[in-house]
Specification:
By secondary structure, the chain is an alpha/beta fold. It contains 17 helices and twelve strands. Among the domains are: about 210 residues, Rossmann fold, CATH 3.40.50.720; about 100 residues, no CATH class. Helix content is about 50%, strand content about 15%. A six-stranded parallel β-sheet has the order 3-2-1-4-5-6, with helices on both faces. Helix 4 packs antiparallel against helix 16. The protein binds nicotinamide-adenine-dinucleotide (NAD), 6-O-phosphono-alpha-D-glucopyranose and manganese (II) ion. The site of 6-O-phosphono-alpha-D-glucopyranose (G6P) has 9 residues, from helix 7 and helix 12.
C-alpha cells in the first residue's frame, strides 16, 4: 500500500488532535509517510502541533516525518491529500454570527440561517485562495474540504473550479448520526449503508441497511420514536447542547415520519422555538470557546508539560475516522459508500443539475460515484428548493458584492422569512463584518442613500 503525504490546513483547529488520534487508529487503512500542518496563526497552531508531535512519537513511530509551518509553499509541496479545516474570523466572529440574529429574535447558528450566510461570505475568499495555492504546489493532490458552512463553500468552489475532479466537500453529521443508529442496532457504524438525500445540514435518511443488505430502517425509527435518541460519538455524547439536539430527532421523526432527519433540520422546522431557547451571551460559539476549545487547549498544554500522553485520556472520534475512511477509499479505490457532497446532475431527479447535493456515493480513485435517488416527494423538494435558492443567492451575493442578493437570500431562509427582519440582520452583519466585506459595506451605503 502506498504511504500518503498528508497536509492538514488549519493545523491549529480544535479538531486536529482528534484527527491525529483517528489517523493513528486508522493507520492500517490509510498509512502515512508524512503529516504536515499549515495554519496562518503561528501561535494557535504551535500548541496543537507540539502536542501532536508527542502523540505521534509515542503512537505512530512508523511515521517518517511530522512537520508544521506557516509557510504555504513549504506546507503544500508534494501533498497527496490535503484536509482543509479553516475558520475565517475565528470563533470570535462565530459569536457575532450567532448574537446578531438572536438580537432580532432569529436563530443564531454557525451554519444555518443568517449565521451561515455571514460565515459563508467570510470563508469563500480564503477557500478559493487556498485551492488555487494547493493546485499550484500539488496539482494532483486530493482536497478534502470540511470547512463550514460546507454547503455554501461547496457551491462557491463548484463555480470557481468546475473542472477540478479531486476536490471533495464533506460533512461528518450524517456519520455522527449513524454512530447512534449503530448503537441502537449493536453494530459497527462502518457496517451500515445509508440511503439519504438532501443538501448539507439539510437532508434525510430514507433507509439504513447493513452490508449484507438487511433493512434496519423500521427498527431505528421505532427505537427513536419510542425511546428517544442520543448522541453516542465520543466528541458529542456528553455535550448538553448536542444531547438536546439529538432529542429533537424524536420529535421531527414523529411530526414527519417518512424519513429520518439530519439534526440540523431542527433550526428550519422549529425556528421560533429554537430562537426563544437561545440565550444571548451563551450562544453555541461561547459554549465552544468555554468547552471544546478550552478542553483541547488544556489537553495540549498538559501533554506538552509532561512530554508524554501517559497522564491524559485521548479519544478517537467519528469526525476524523470518517474523513480518513473516505480518503482511503479514494486513495486505494476501495469503492466504499459514504455520504458526500456532489453536483446533482440527475442524482435527485427533480432537483436542478447544478445543485450541490449530499448523497451516498461510491468512493473511488476517480472520485465519488453517486447512487441515483430518483424523484423526491413534494414536501422535501419544496424545503430543499428554498434552501438551495438561499445558498446560491449567498454565493451570488459574494461574487457580485450585492446587497440585494444577500437580502433575498435571508428573506428566503426559513429561519428568517420576514423581509424587514432580514434587512435589519443584514445591516448589522455588514457592520460587524466590514473588515471582511468592505465592498458589501460600501454597496450598503449606496442602497441606503439612494
Ligand atoms: P478553529 O478556529 O479552532 O480552527 C481553525 C484553524 O484554521 C485556526 O487555527 C485558524 O488559525 C486557521 N485558519 C484560519 N484561516 C486560515 C487560512 N486562511 N489558512 C490556514 N489556516 C487558517 O475552528 P474549529 O472549530 O476547530 O473548526 C475548524 C473548521 O472545521 C471550521 O470551519 C468548522 O466549521 C469545520 N468543521 C466542519 C465539520 C463538518 O462536518 N463539515 C465538522 C467539524 C468542523
Ligand atoms: C457537526 C457538524 C459540523 C459542525 C460540528 C460542530 O459535526 O457536522 O458541521 O461544525 O458539528 O458544531 P458545534 O456547534 O459543536 O461547534
Ligand atoms: Mn457539518
Amino acid at each position: 500500500m502506498k504511504k500518503q503525504n498528508l497536509v492538514v490546513v488549519g493545523g491549529g483547529s480544535t479538531y486536529t488532535i482528534g484527527m491525529i488520534m483517528s489517523l493513528i487508529a486508522e493507520k492500517e487503512n490509510f498509512p502515512l509517510a508524512s503529516i504536515t500542518f499549515y495554519d496562518t496563526n503561528e501561535e494557535r497552531q504551535e500548541k496543537i502541533a507540539k502536542a501532536s508531535e508527542i502523540i505521534l512519537r509515542e503512537k505512530y513511530p512508523e511515521l517518517e516525518s511530522f512537520h508544521y509551518t506557516t509557510d504555504k509553499e513549504e506546507a503544500l509541496r508534494n501533498a497527496d491529500f490535503v484536509f482543509v479545516q479553516i475558520r475565517t474570523g475565528g470563533l470570535r466572529m462565530r459569536e457575532q454570527d450567532e448574537e446578531i440574529p438572536l438580537s432580532h429574535g432569529v436563530v443564531g447558528q454557525e451554519t444555518c440561517g443568517p449565521g451561515g450566510m455571514a460565515y459563508g461570505l467570510r470563508s469563500i475568499g480564503d477557500m478559493i485562495e487556498l485551492v488555487n495555492d494547493i493546485r499550484h504546489y500539488s496539482p494532483d493532490a486530493w482536497i478534502l474540504n470540511y470547512t463550514n458552512p460546507a454547503a455554501i463553500v461547496a457551491e462557491a468552489l463548484r463555480r470557481e473550479f468546475p473542472e477540478d475532479k479531486k476536490l471533495l466537500n464533506i460533512c461528518d453529521m450524517p456519520a455522527a448520526i449513524m454512530v447512534s443508529y449503530a448503537g441502537i442496532l449493536g453494530k459497527d457504524v462502518f457496517d451500515l449503508v445509508p440511503e439519504y438525500f438532501g443538501l448539507n445540514h439539510f437532508g434525510w435518511f430514507t433507509k439504513v441497511l447493513d452490508k449484507q443488505g438487511n433493512d434496519h430502517t423500521d427498527t431505528i425509527k421505532r427505537a427513536i420514536t419510542e425511546d428517544g435518541f442520543l448522541p453516542e460519538d465520543a466528541e458529542i455524547a456528553n455535550d448538553p447542547s448536542w444531547i438536546k439536539t439529538f432529542k429533537q430527532v424524536e420529535r421531527m421523526a414523529t411530526d414527519f415520519p417518512d424519513y429520518l432527519p439530519n439534526t440540523y433540520l431542527q433550526y428550519y422546522l422549529y425556528p421560533s422555538e429554537m430562537a426563544q431557547k437561545e440565550v444571548s451571551g451563551n450562544t453555541r460559539a461561547r459554549q465552544v470557546i468555554n468547552g471544546r476549545e478550552k478542553r483541547v487547549h488544556t489537553l495540549a498544554d498538559q501533554i506538552i508539560a509532561d512530554d508524554t500522553t501517559e497522564n491524559v485520556e485521548l479519544e478517537v472520534d467519528i469526525h476524523g475516522r470518517y474523513m480518513i475512511r473516505v480518503a482511503a477509499s479514494m486513495a486505494y479505490n476501495n469503492g466504499d459508500i459514504f455520504i458526500v457532497m456532489v453536483e446533482n446532475n440527475g442524482t435527485i431527479a427533480n432537483l436542478p443539475d447544478d445543485a450541490m447535493v449530499e448523497v451516498p456515493s461510491m468512493m473511488t480513485s476517480r472520485g465519488p460515484k453517486p447512487f441515483a435517488v430518483g424523484h423526491i416527494p413534494r414536501f422535501y423538494k419544496g424545503l430543499i428548493e428554498g434552501q438551495l435558492a438561499y445558498e446560491q443567492l449567498v454565493v451570488d451575493a459574494y461574487y457580485e458584492n450585492s446587497y440585494e442578493k444577500a437580502l433575498q437570500a435571508l428573506t428566503l431562509n426559513r429561519t428568517v422569512v420576514d423581509a424587514p427582519t432580514a434587512r435589519n440582520i443584514l445591516d448589522d452583519m455588514i457592520e460587524a463584518n466590514k473588515e471582511y466585506w468592505p465592498e458589501l459595506h460600501r454597496n450598503k451605503q449606496l442602497v441606503t442613500n439612494a
